[in-house]
Amino acid sequence: MEAFRKLGIIEPVLRSIQEHRFEKPSDIQEKTIPLVLAGKDVIGGSATGSGKTLAFGAGLIQHSEHGRGVQALVLTPTRELADQVTKALRLFSRYRPLKIIDVYGGVSINPQIDALRYADIVVGTPGRILDHLERGTLRLQAVKILVLDEADRMLDMGFIDDVERIISQCPKERQTLLFSATLSPELRQLAGRYMKQPVNISTEIYVDPRKLRQVYYDAPDNMKFSLLVHLLKQEHPGLVMVFCNTQKNTDFVAKNLKANGIEALAIHGGFSQAKRSRTMENFHSQRTQVLVCTDVAARGLDIKGVSHVYNYDTPKESKQYIHRIGRTARAGKEGKAVNILSSRDYDNFEHVLRDNDVDIPKEEMPAAMERVFIQFKDKPRHFGRKPFHGRSRGNFHKEGRSHHPRRF
Ligand code: AMP
Asked: Is the full-model pTM beyond 0.70?
């Protein structure tokens, strides 16, 4: 506790940290908390799993007092992250009672309107926050601290205009904290426009490379799904996240895993908020072990005990790969990231290797696999019967594209 106290954290917050059994501050907490408490603007290069919620939460909780209007506003890209941040802030402020209210779309607005009357800290997604601002049910003139959480994701999701409109309604005299796993030029511009001499803090994504094994399989196009089923059944993993690039593939994989006797749930932005919350509860409580998801739905979620991450589709953006594998091998636990490649993943995988400077060994396809049952409703492309060309001992090239074998 001494280490947390030295950062300037006050007794009531220390008490709840003690209850969380945190032994020492994480890297981002150590670097950020003193600056946040001193009122500085901070850009924290840090992803979920780094402990960033307490890094900004300590400032929010210590600098807010109940009954003085909304003094802190946290913008998050997704409803799930808003929910997670709210829950964490409520726990950290257990001995310093504050009204922390989350507002996001997809659920009824009226209970939010009632709750906002007494709010001290508001956490929410840009669309719904704007909605409340337009209705006059949320006022920001008392805001002292503005947090942009997972700012890169908010920009990727097209929230830039909404975010700027919200910022323009906050008092100019305020502290702004921005957290983001990556810092694009667009984000730097945003910081330049709205932050005052921000201090840049960078920390590593909290994945322990000694604890994380990464492999790839080079699967013929029509065996991708069979391989996934085989691996899920053979490896007896703990909680599993299977990543797909599209909502359609997510539905397809979840449905067909179930058809093959594997309890799986899908989560993506196409589902109602109630359904997404139910799914996350099932997964958190380990009632369902396999979560099939898109990046957007999974982004920022802090789920404990994920032993395996499967990339059923290789991410298009190579930085996304790091976000995905960051779901496992956390907090000292072992983890495995398995990439199931077929021909349509080669380009993306090449970018992943190049941009992230990772070395991922190849695993041979299993000699024998069970037959699987596949329901094709909207027949996805990669389940077609395209012949597979050019594979040879870890090197391959696509016919007609390159004369050089690809080496992964
Ligand atoms: P966050 O990045 O804020 O979502 O935090 C990720 C996870 O790390 C959460 O489950 C936190 O409860 C946990 N955590 C945060 N700070 C610490 C710490 N200093 N020691 C151990 N666990 C922590």
From this structure: no
